[in-house]
Amino acid sequence: MLRPLAVVLSLAASASAIWPAPISMTQGNSTLWLTQTVEITYNGDFMPYTYGYTPTGPDWTSKDIVQGGVSRALGQIFGDYFVPWMLHTREEQATFEPKVMSNKTWIESLEITQTGEDSEDTWKAAAGEVDESYSLSLSKDGKAKIGAASSIGVLHALQTFTQLFYRHSGGPFWYTPMAPIDIEDSPTFAHRGLLMDVSRHYFPMEDIYRTLDALSWNKMNRLHIHATDSQSWPLEIPSLPEVSAKGAYHPSLVYTPTDLKNIQEYGAMRAVQVIIEIDMPGHIGVLGESHPELVVAYDERPYYWWCAQPPCGALRLNNSDVDEFLGTLFEDLLPRVSPYSSYFHTGGDELNANDSMLDPGVQSNDTEVLKPLLQNFIDLNHGRVKDAGLTPIVWEEMAIDWDIDMDPETTVVQSWLGTVSNLTEKGFKVIDTNYNFWYLDCGRGQWLTFDNDANATFYPFNDWCGPTKPWQLIYSHDPTEGLPEEQAKLVIGGEVAAWSETIDPANMDTLVWPRAGAAAEVLWSGRYDADGEPRSQLDAAPRLQEMRARMVTRGVKASPITQQWCVQMGGDPLACSYDLNPYGH
Amino acid sequence: MLRPLAVVLSLAASASAIWPAPISMTQGNSTLWLTQTVEITYNGDFMPYTYGYTPTGPDWTSKDIVQGGVSRALGQIFGDYFVPWMLHTREEQATFEPKVMSNKTWIESLEITQTGEDSEDTWKAAAGEVDESYSLSLSKDGKAKIGAASSIGVLHALQTFTQLFYRHSGGPFWYTPMAPIDIEDSPTFAHRGLLMDVSRHYFPMEDIYRTLDALSWNKMNRLHIHATDSQSWPLEIPSLPEVSAKGAYHPSLVYTPTDLKNIQEYGAMRAVQVIIEIDMPGHIGVLGESHPELVVAYDERPYYWWCAQPPCGALRLNNSDVDEFLGTLFEDLLPRVSPYSSYFHTGGDELNANDSMLDPGVQSNDTEVLKPLLQNFIDLNHGRVKDAGLTPIVWEEMAIDWDIDMDPETTVVQSWLGTVSNLTEKGFKVIDTNYNFWYLDCGRGQWLTFDNDANATFYPFNDWCGPTKPWQLIYSHDPTEGLPEEQAKLVIGGEVAAWSETIDPANMDTLVWPRAGAAAEVLWSGRYDADGEPRSQLDAAPRLQEMRARMVTRGVKASPITQQWCVQMGGDPLACSYDLNPYGH
């Protein structure tokens, strides 16, 4: 067998296990051991790493944030039982671990230096307004150093730090085999998010917390909570208690104001900003449960005349009761959003003009009639969002299909239909969530049911956006692909989306992870490497497998991306590759 | 809104919650309450239902088996906290449960009558050799009766019994709202299985136990364990200890003889026969770890010249060392299989003729050369299987592609390529596992990785058998479709397959359930109803959703098949249907 290059690649591939890949990294092959009494300093002061240190916000100090990060990072390293046998072949099992000798070189200090000052806005900063970069070094003699301009950068550095270490199978010892290490790192995109839909299925707090943890491990910094839709309204609004009382799937399946605050703080402390979306004026039928006077077409049938999926329902337009209701809603909710986020998402996708035919105040599906009404609606409500100190985000239909006039300076548009360039041409800042690449829910079939007379039409019952997007496809997507440089700058980042028609707590982890991580590397490290080449799956796969294994150890039920044999052969990336030129290397 | 029929369907759909659907069932709408002191008799004798009653086999008595079933059924009813709020709309939440009044009608007795005698072979019977039918009745005044010819039938009846009951949210009360009930039930197909691949990923015992439980709840009666493949050999063979010592992914990831016995007994007590497959002569490369002299092409590259996926590897043909090795293997393993199964699966899929070019004793890929060698191989080894009192099962390639001469009376052929009729024409008994319908692993993308130069060729990285098979497609498949009646009789049943290239304990439940249940209903109840009409998704969906909810309550992470709103609208099946003729009803 002719495989000289496999050996070379083997060395290269085992070189770095960090996910997402740092922008710049050098490393050696010396072993250092991490002692549980490692002395940690922050800007020169001793920092204890009490397990589970959790300050209460939003009036944190930078030290609070960093100490929380240190507590979690050390807790992960020492608390996870991550012996990476699964990353090594059978033959390597006896040799992949360093010998536990008495003359260990210990990492005795971790010196954290924050070179800049955080502002009170650091932990809720808009895209580009906080410096997330960091440096991390580990000298051969055991001195670890982290430097960053912001506490956010320190948190990222600490997550990288955790990925350097493994547990030893022979006892309570933790080591890194890659010293000395020098890393300089910073994100390519400022907005790196996951959309979680808590309306089509409800997710208990523990699922949201676990997801926030997993996002932070992958250096993703946004959790976009699609909080309401036509199906259910789980978000408790104290001034409008009837909305969730009647609109949640069950009276117990709500997020109280305290829950929301806990979610926001849990995220903020992990450098994950939580962004709340109330989708409107479509996708809000559930208000028909508590406020039938405000909506039209709720559960109207056949649904496909009125909306994209059952149950239908949209706000009435040009209606003062709606305006007043939203005023009350925003007055209640937005002051609870603004301490933790720069953004509020007002939805705006898939509005079906037919709905307004059922609106007694409109009775038309003529876009010429509807457009000015919609313009008023957006002006009024985006004005309210801005008055609360927040930047509105809207789905692209408002900007493209309805051509609503919105100020590009103060509005962010989220694209899902693949029309990023149409938006950047208009000067909008864009979040890319191209469904052809980054919709994590796609490809598992219809969730509608079909009577026998419809079977022939819908056979074999595939969904609209399948097949499932494999990690390789997710990894291939660059949100700025094909854009001129000036327009590329407007793309603040992207989100992968976990629409929850067929996702609930039972299967969420398996569908989100590790595929969201594939997008995380594109968004953090960039689709192209330092040489301008597309990042290769051969380099990525072993690292993603390792990251997945770490995540499973930490309690996230991430799916395997390949068989165990291939994971163990990770050091030989050609083992499970389709090698077009087997003798060409 | 015009939906008179919705109301009618609503009543019809809520009528029966049993999965899979009984062949015949009548029911009422009276509520009966199940007391924890229900008196149970078996053939007239008092039967205690000690929780967790677990006799040791294989020398069970029928009473042991029934008592185990009673223990589990009552344990499920009283132990699950299955308050079915999620099956009812918001409006129904206050009313769907019966009032907890003092004048309850209690079910005070469950009288189990087994009309036939079990033989020592009952719990390992071949297809068609045990009567699985049962009757179950519940009178309006609270007398429950189960009748069955075999203890297997009693076990099925008990599983149906559990599905009649719900927990009351108001306290420790359990009720059925559907009395009186009369059920006559029996399976359409005798072989109703799941293939679980424990070679590409290892599954701990708890995952196998949980899967056996879930199979039994769905009245599936076969767990086909694909125990070995080229990737790993987790099955410990005491007379050949080196095979798993060197062939398991890790020395700890093995099934000991005790493990195997425990799996077999756990299944047998639940009417699930465990069938072991050792795939050969292909798909056995892993022997190269312990017995390189027996295999060719182990991890040969590029893999696609030698086999379907890495690592390659096949047994040498016409080789006395191989014959001797298999003799030792079978002598060790088969006596441990035969107490619990009528079958032993010898594999036989995807043998690549090129492998024998590397075989020093053959040096040819000419099928005319190979076929007689393969004939000898099958003759010898199927002879050994039969000598051990077992019926060999082989994959279809042996019968079709290689046209090996095998006795249809004493050989079962498993079809995955959709060629059932070719096999029945030859007179073989057939297990149908058509990959276009019943492969549960398909459609989530490639698990190989591709270097940048191969991206264009393999983009968008779909796997070979996608897209994912939705439950509706699985449900549409009749294993006897298009067969003349005489040949249809030869189809003993089917299996859904969970090949584990990208399935491990993290995501197995989500991919197997409830989709395996869709096949379970086809196999138990038949694809066609009593009127000869294909069973409708509109009838099936609410029942499958309920079954899925029960399974989640019982700790199986089955995936949702639709959004929560549709589940709650289950009583109105048109709510989440694509209604081609909205005004035609």
Task: Please provide a written account of the structure.
Chains A, B: Keywords: Glycoprotein, Glycosidase, Hydrolase, Signal. Two copies of one chain form a homodimer. Chain A is α/β, with parallel strands linked by helices and 585 residues long. Chain A has two domains: 22-185, 2-Layer Sandwich (Chitobiase, domain 2); 191-525, TIM Barrel (Alpha-Beta Barrel), CATH 3.20.20.80. Chain A contains 19 helices and 17 strands. Chain A has an eight-stranded parallel β-sheet. In chain A, strands 1-3-5-4-7 form a five-stranded mixed β-barrel. The radius of gyration of chain A is 25 Å and the shape is globular. The relative contact order of chain A is 0.12. Residues 1-14 of chain A have low confidence and may be disordered. Chains A and B meet through helix 13, helix 14, helix 18 and helix 19 of A and helix 13, helix 14, helix 18 and helix 19 of B.
Which key phrases capture this entry?
8-stranded parallel β-sheet; disordered N terminus; alpha/beta; homodimer; 585 residues; 19 helices; 2 domains; Chitobiase, domain 2; TIM Barrel
